[in-house]
Write a structure and sequence with these properties.
By secondary structure, the chain is an alpha/beta fold. The protein has helices at 15-23, 40-45, 83-98, 167-179, 195-202, 216-227, 246-252, 266-276, 296-305, and strands at residues 2-11, 31-34, 60-70, 73-76, 79-81, 108-114, 129-131, 134-137, 151-154, 185-189, 207-212, 235-239, 257-263, 280-292, 309-316, 319-325. The protein is built from nine helices and 16 strands.
């Protein structure tokens, strides 16, 4: 299958109106490239495989629309249309917008892509790897002979969540391995793909509860539980914001977790920490990561202000993991 990508250079202020206008032509599913900083809500939702802050916003945006091509013609709204005709219609709409608002350069470039499997093409970039003695392997690969006998986590990241490759996740995994006992009840805030909760059960924890803001986590967790033979009653998931929603706090429960893990941005850990101490048992362990190195002191201060005792501060690359305890 061939696709034609129509890429428009514009400005960030014009993104929404251009997308809305071209939607009327039948162009849907715009891919947006810009340097707008993440909003607080977007940062709150970035629970795994967290990236550092991006470059400074320059106001430039690129909008890309993909249209199927067959036998030299494009297929739009189930009908054939010549490439030149669609290009002319897009230009006409952009010039109409330019009459009453700034849209920037408005340059349109076309690119051809062939036989792209948009759902599965990313798989070529994810292969099995190890975290100490844990083998992480996707469903489309088999373990190498030398990896036979290792503790094996089967996980497919899909398109929404991480896989354990990021330093922040690995910092959490190593801390969990150290503190989990057969009696451990774990709470994983921002569980995403469920990797921390699933591994915790594989490490010997009694049970786990995960929370996440993104409803996509439901299917991701279900698939990964099934792939690793985790019983439904061993790992339960709740969708909602544990920081602000009392019903989620109530559903999770109070002072009933031996370990709370949170692999989240520092900006979220700060308001989370004084809330989550109510979920921890006395003597419970608080494992955090997702902390870029220049935010280490900020999170340490929040942890201490909540009355927790700092046990460890670990580093991997430019990321920091903090382990603390709720004392009696």
């Amino acid at each position: 299958m061939k696709w034609i990508k129509f890429k428009i250079k514009t400005i960030t202020d014009a993104e929404d109106i251009i997308i809305s206008t071209l939607y009327d032509l039948g162009l849907e599913g715009a891919q947006i490239e810009d340097k707008i900083p993440l909003s607080p809500l977007e940062k709150e939702q970035m629970f795994v495989d967290i990236l550092p802050e991006g470059p400074e916003d320059d106001g430039i945006a690129y909008l890309s629309f993909f249209v199927e091509e067959s036998d030299g013609e494009l297929i739009l709204n189930g009908k054939k249309i010549a490439r030149e005709e669609l290009l002319a219609q897009i230009r006409e709409q952009l010039e109409e917008l330019r009459r009453f608002m700034e849209i920037g350069e408005g340059k349109i470039t076309l690119e051809e892509t062939e036989d792209v499997d948009w759902i599965n093409n990313w798989k070529q970039y994810f292969h099995q790897f190890t975290i100490d003695d844990v083998l992480v392997i996707p469903s489309w690969e088999k373990a190498a002979p030398e990896d036979q006998g290792k503790l094996t986590l089967h996980i497919d990241p899909g398109t929404a969540f991480g896989t354990g490759m990021h330093e922040t996740t690995q910092l959490c995994i190593r801390a969990l391995r150290k503190y989990i006992t057969p009696e451990t009840r774990l709470l994983d805030v921002g569980t995403g793909s469920g990797i921390l909760a699933i591994l915790s059960i594989m490490f010997g924890a009694e049970s786990a509860v995960g929370t996440d803001l993104d409803p996509c986590a439901v299917e991701a967790v279900r698939e990964n539980k099934e792939a690793n033979g985790i019983a439904d009653e061993a790992f339960q998931l709740l969708i909602g914001n544990i920081i602000t929603e009392k019903e989620i706090q109530d559903a999770v429960g109070y002072e009933c977790y031996d370990i709370v893990a949170a692999n989240i941005l520092a900006e979220v850990l700060v308001p989370l920490t004084p809330v989550i101490i109510h979920q921890l048992k006395k003597g419970g362990i608080y494992i955090t990561s997702g902390i870029i190195d220049d935010k280490e002191q900020t999170v340490l201060e929040a942890v201490k202000a909540a009355g927790l005792e700092v046990l460890e501060v670990n580093h991997q690359g430019e990321w920091v993991g903090i382990v603390a305890r709720k004392n009696p």
